[in-house]
Specification:
By secondary structure, the chain is an alpha/beta fold. Helices cover 48% and strands 17% of the residues.
């Protein structure tokens, strides 16, 4: 059920993660289809329902019956956006894959420009956020802080980055077949794979319907995953804290010995309490950093699938239910 005609030999897959987007998914699909219809390419739209609690997948099933090229994947529960992106990319058959949000904050009007860059030879085309005035001040602040921290520690430039990207089949195959890690950060992986890459700036659009789905806890978890996955720099912070503790200990010891030689009373209760508090804080921070890396290794060793599929629609040649997202 892929949109085709004799002049359209290129297939583009558009992967759209969706969570509780029943109210706006039909409008989003119509907008994206309208743009793709004018691009002289064949296409498939793969909507991945990340365990929604509303009628998102029912709406996708209705759209699949009304429109050629619409396909749906429904998770057994909420596994997170990173898993939804991977599931869609794994199911995509296109020569290139575009990933974008279901809330239309990633403007479909940018797709023709992405395809033009791809035809010029770029294997990865990043949509980067130029203007975020449609978002709240707090949302902008936390996004800037997150991107700056990861760029600083991870050694990859994701300033103003987004999940709005086009990946050539070569880059898609690398991510799907050669990167078996369980805890994933799609923006970082798309940057890390290399190949010819370029950026296209865009202004973040207002949400079509509803509110954003990202909570502070979810963003902290994503940031932790991203940092742990792409850099060992936090482990060096443990060594730095140890060095700071040593220097502090030498200073306190020197002051105590000098006071003793001068016949003065050695600083007592206050100095001891402050020293214990500082050293104890450094120890707890160090344990937390090391613990995050151990937790990541534990997740990798368990080798559980990244997601479980409850049902599909539009994939006539595939089983209706499936367990996937597991790499050998």
């Amino acid at each position: 059920m892929i949109q085709e005609n004799d002049k359209r030999n290129t297939l583009i897959s558009v992967v759209i993660p969706a969570y509780n987007e029943a109210a706006g998914i039909e409008h989003a699909i119509n907008e994206i289809k309208h743009v793709l219809d004018g691009c002289e390419v064949g296409y498939e739209l793969i909507i991945v329902d990340d365990g929604s609690r509303d009628r998102t997948f029912e709406k996708v099933q209705e759209l699949e019956k009304k429109h050629n090229g619409v396909k749906g994947i429904q998770f057994s529960r909420n596994f997170g956006k990173e898993a939804a992106l991977l599931a869609g990319i794994e199911a995509a058959k296109g020569d290139a894959v575009i990933t974008m949000d279901a809330d239309l904050q990633h403007p479909p009007s940018l797709i023709p420009e992405m395809l033009a860059k791809w035809k010029e030879g770029f294997k990865v085309v990043h949509g980067v956020k130029r203007d975020r005035s449609s978002e709240s001040r707090f949302t902008r602040w936390r996004a800037v802080a997150f991107n700056h921290l990861l760029s600083l520690l991870g050694g990859i430039d994701i300033q103003h980055s987004s999940d709005f990207k086009l990946l050539d089949r070569i880059a898609v195959d690398v991510i799907v077949q050669q990167l078996p890690e369980k805890r994933r950060f799609y923006r970082g992986l798309a940057n890390w794979v290399g190949f010819e890459q370029t950026n296209i700036p865009f202004s973040v659009q207002s949400r079509g319907v509803g509110d954003g789905k990202w909570s502070i806890i979810a963003l902290i978890d994503l940031a932790t995953t991203a940092i742990v996955s792409f850099t060992s720099a936090p482990l060096r912070i443990v060594s730095l804290l140890g060095l700071i503790t040593l220097i502090f200990g030498v200073i306190v010891s020197t002051e105590a010995l000098w006071s003793w030689f001068q016949g003065k009373a050695v600083s007592g209760f206050t100095t001891i309490i402050i020293t214990l508090l500082i050293i104890g804080s450094f120890i707890m921070i160090s344990l937390g950093i090391v613990g995050e890396y151990i937790a990541k290794m534990y997740e990798e060793i368990k080798a559980r699938p990244l997601y479980l599929v409850k049902s599909r629609c539009g994939f006539e040649d595939e089983r209706n239910t499936n367990c996937s997202g597991k790499h050998d």
